[in-house]
Design brief:
Strand order of the largest sheet: 15-14-11-18-16-17
Low-confidence stretches: 211-233
CATH class of the largest domain: Mainly Alpha
Strand content: 15-25%
Number of strands: 18
Structural class: alpha+beta
Number of domains: 4
Shape: globular
Largest sheet: 6 strands, mixed
Helix content: 40-55%
Number of helices: 20
Distance between the termini: 44 Å
Mean pLDDT: 83
Radius of gyration: 27 Å
CATH topology of the largest domain: Serine Threonine Protein Phosphatase 5, Tetratricopeptide repeat
CATH superfamily of the largest domain: DhaL domain
């Protein structure tokens, strides 16, 4: 027996990752249980994608404290939330992490309080809570925890008792929901939560867990084709090949940078990358330079240098042929995936401006991004082009700017073969909130109603500069002044970006506010944004501050308060 009365951030991190891994391992089985609210077999997938988004962030942390860990779990699950069950799971995780605030270690009493906070947060997030679901399992687990916490000196016994009670509760879900009883199954979301509990308990006991599964998987190998050259035309004399055993997965931008470096010292470059290795082929006169650069990413293996003017021309050709076959197979897979997406039930079109914001929308499964916004409003024709490109029965359009809503509505009127639903989002934060609350398990009308309702709860603000002298809302504004613009008008005017943003937020944040999302633009550095985030966290200690690179022009900051 593990004789322990408290857990710290290290143990909690291990428990969380183990819980995520166990859920991932059981996702297909959980999918098969899925009959409520819609029998579409995706509960396991949605819950897994949600928790893996958080697990990816957690696994990248080095020796985190409780606060850093909580932020990674909360932010990662919130942004990765998919489907009804995934959203509920994200809220459970978010609520639980709130309960860790101010604690370097957690005993049974603190854990029980955090579980209670998790349930409270999740129930709040569901418009019409239904018993016999994941909510019931979570609530009963929290009730059991509160019941025994005061007398629980040993956490192993504490966790075991909670798990057994959750297991019994899950077994009773068919009695609460007739559709489950009819199908002869327990609730799939409740089963998913139980698997998180099971894995977390294994993690607490110290069972060996392979965390490599949490690394981000790329969409496919990054490949540059070999160019064939006759020996007489060889410019770079050494065929250099090696494998990099990565310290961590290379981001796309870093991979691109490595390609550019290799291009500067050679040609006939081939890079085949996945999460663990990069296979490199380059023709160069300076193999050592390629090795030195590669060593910054990890250890080297299977290094080989051949003098191409003497040998191995045949091998080079064979490698090129092999690569061509691999690419052909990859292209076939991508074409099949694209075809599978055609004629799907739901699609999304979003207007976005700025690299960071566009990436965020893509991560939220938006099918088509229209570049545009303030000063560059897309046309009705742009909307029609996007609609034509999205092969779905129901297509939601997120204009994310009040000046673009009309063009979206006109495109809707001109489209006859698809159901176009314009969600009148006036800001990017409203658009993000709308899509986060989308549930593929429900019909188009339900989703439209839910999105319209949820965007009402988002208070937005944008910080920019004045292009001329003017007077608005009894405020004297001079050219070059910084303005904080809210949903209903100008909330703040000043000469400092940060101070004006804080003044604007003072109008938006209330005692009920839980989350400030901050998206910094192309004119704000990461260091400036991080420093400003710390100031906001000090100003609003009871509110989560979630900061992202937006990359938008014109606006220094785009913010939302929920």
């Amino acid at each position: 027996m593990v004789d322990r009365q408290t857990i710290d951030a290290k143990i909690l991190s291990r428990m969380f990752l183990a819980g995520a891994k166990n859920l991932e391992a059981k996702k297909e089985w959980i999918n098969e249980l899925n009959v409520f609210p819609v029998p579409d077999g995706d509960t396991g997938t949605n819950m897994t994608m949600t928790i893996m988004s958080a697990a990816s962030e957690v696994s990248s942390l080095t020796d985190p404290d409780m606060e850093t860990l909580a932020k990674a779990i909360s932010s990662g699950s919130l942004r990765g939330a998919r489907g009804n069950s995934g959203v509920i799971l994200s809220q459970l995780l978010r609520g639980f992490t709130k309960g860790t605030k101010g604690h370097k270690e957690m005993d049974a009493v603190v854990i029980a309080a955090a579980m209670e906070k998790a349930v409270e947060t999740a129930y709040k997030a569901v418009m019409k809570p239904k018993e016999g679901t994941i909510l019931t399992v979570a609530r009963e687990a929290a009730v059991k925890a509160a019941e025994i916490a005061e007398e629980s000196a040993n956490l192993e016994l504490f966790f075991r008792a909670i798990f057994e009670h959750a297991e019994k509760t899950l077994a009773r879900t068919p009695e609460m929901l007739p559709v489950l009883k009819e199908a002869g199954v327990v609730d799939s979301g409740g089963q998913g939560l139980l698997e998180v509990f099971r894995g977390a308990f294994d993690g607490y006991l110290g069972k060996e867990i392979d965390y490599s599964a949490f690394e981000k998987v790329s969409s496919g190998p990054a490949v540059t084709r070999i160019s064939q050259q006759a020996e007489a035309d060889i410019k770079f004399g050494y065929c250099t090949e090696f494998i990099i055993l990565l310290n961590k997965p290379l981001p796309d931008e870093e991979l691109h940078s490595f390609k550019e470096f290799l291009t500067s010292i050679g040609d006939s470059i081939v890079l085949v990358a996945d999460d663990e290795i990069v296979k490199v082929h380059v023709h160069t006169n300076h193999p050592g330079q390629a090795f030195e650069k590669a060593l910054t990413y990890g250890a080297l293996s299977r290094m080989k240098i051949d003098n191409m003017r003497e040998e191995h021309q045949e091998k080079l050709i064979k490698d090129a042929e092999k690569l061509a076959r691999e690419q052909e197979e990859q292209e076939k897979k991508e074409a099949a995936a694209k075809a599978a997406k055609e004629h799907k039930k739901y699609g999304f079109i979003s207007v976005s401006v700025g690299e960071g914001l566009s990436t965020l929308f893509k991560e939220l499964n938006v099918d088509y991004i229209i570049e545009g916004g303030q000063t560059m409003n897309p046309s009705t024709e742009d909307m029609l082009t996007a609609i034509d490109a999205v092969h779905a029965k129901h297509i939601f359009i997120l204009p994310n700017n009040k000046n673009i809503i009309l063009a979206a509505n006109q495109a809707k009127e001109l489209t006859e073969d698809k159901d176009i639903i314009v969600i009148p989002t006036k800001t990017v934060p409203q658009g993000i909130t709308a899509i986060i609350n989308f549930s593929p398990e429900n019909d188009a009308d339900w989703n439209e109603e839910t999105m319209l309702e949820e965007i009402k709860n988002v208070k937005s603000g944008q910080v920019t500069y004045a292009v001329r002298d003017t007077k608005i809302d009894d405020k004297e504004i001079h050219q070059g002044d910084i303005m904080g613009i809210g949903d209903s008008g100008i909330l703040a005017v000043g000469t400092s970006v940060e101070e004006t943003t804080k003044e604007m937020l003072a109008h938006l944040v209330t005692e009920d506010s839980e989350l400030i999302s901050l998206y910094y633009g192309e004119e704000v550095s990461e260091e400036e944004a991080d420093r400003f985030t710390e100031e906001l966290e000090e100003t609003y200690p009871d509110v989560d501050v979630d900061t992202h690179f937006g990359g938008q022009p014109i606006y220094y900051y785009v913010v939302s308060v929920e």
